[in-house]
Amino acid sequence: MRQNAIYRAGVLGRRPSVPTDPERLERRARRAMSARARAYVGGGAGRGETMRSNREAFGRWRIVPRMLHGVTARDLSTTVAGTHLRAPLLLAPVGAAGLIRPNSDVAIATGAAAAETAYVFSNQGGDPMEHTARAMGDTPFWYQLYWSTDEDLVDSMIGRAEACGARALVVTLDTTMLGWRTQDLDLGSLPFARGEGIAQYTSDRRFADLVAERIAAPTGRPPTTVTLGAIRTLLAMSRAHPGRFLDNLRSPVPRASVETFLDIYSNPGLSWDHLATLRGRTSLPILLKGILHPDDARRALDLGVDGIVVSNHGGRQVDNAIASLDALVAVRAAIGPEPTVLLDSGIRTGADVFVALALGADACLLGRPHLYGLALAGADGVRQVIENVIAELDLTMGLVGVPDLASITPDVLVPTRP
Questions:
Q1: pLDDT higher than 90, residue 223
Q2: Domain boundaries, the chain
Q3: CA 289, 294, 299: angle at the middle one, nearest 5?
Q4: Rounded to the nearest 10 degrees, how much is the dihedral formed by the CA atoms of 286, 290, 292, 295?
Q5: Where in the numbering of this chain does the FMN hydroxy acid dehydrogenase domain appear (predicted)?
Q6: Which residue among 56, 84, 230, 234 is buried most deeply as judged by most CB within 10 Å?
Q7: 212 pLDDT tier (thresholds 50, 70, 90)
Q8: Closest by alpha carbon to 38, among 189, 199, 243, 245?
Q9: Residues with active-site annotation
Q10: May I ask the CATH architecture of the domain 2-192+266-415?
């Protein structure tokens, strides 16, 4: 057990390099980050009301342990959207993690694999998905998709995700435009405008074609084969040496790459009609991330998707939005017990996961905490954060008296008084 390992190491004078307390973890990680990383990772939309609501929602429920239950072993394993999970926890996709450390996505994948925990690769990653997939080894991973305005790029991203072994496709719905992120705005800092967090694009052949078209546009002639080849070569070099790419943002190809990304990365006109085409474009299980309204949940399931992720993007998109946990209760009541539902936004501890499962989630996505672990101790920091959350979930189940996830029902909770 994780707890016993920490205590035994403590006898020898060794303490965890990553705090187990979530508030202390965040404080220490923020001190280790640059101002731009703190703003991007820790900031939310507007005044941050949605971020606060995400945490306050967990405070509206209390766990009721039962005594003398005789439960001595727990089974945390589950299968979600066809993927077997060690525990009902996945790492959420977070873009531009390279603000924290170089090769961040590969480091996160290394930590996730060490903890045998699935990772949802970010569409806005700092490492190409193929590199990150290699770091996962045999541990399953999913791929997050932002729906571009270029449909051929959408197909290219999906095809690459399938080819490198993704087990599911997670389409993020709530970021067709960036939210009003005041901490980033006050620094004038958008990572993607600096070429950070666009490695999925610069590693993509279709994106290289779009860059070539942009460069050739002033001449009125289509890009030549030589031009295309040169651009693809330069973009390939950028993947191996991202620092050199960033140092030359005023050069034609890097500048055109950033401008092309900013023009096409997401689709403000994304609609249900777009989503209706998805089943014919991939064989992977499909989950829609960003659902908060019961009617949207019903419509998503009517489209035949394999699951939904109730999420407000960690409070980063709409200020004063409904807390994800509150939305989960309404969504599960509307769609019944059978459809697959995951929860994202506000998860910090194993006890949080327990509450979310009791209210109807099949699994949870862990976002900011794993980045805090990355900031403090790299890949091993990611592993430690995961192990801490899973260990607390296991202990909570044991102390409450539930032997498996199916036994975590609403009966183990009571609402707090207003």
A1: no
A2: 2-192+266-415, 199-264
A3: 70
A4: -40
A5: 14-418
A6: 234
A7: confident
A8: 189
A9: 313
A10: Alpha-Beta Barrel (3.20)
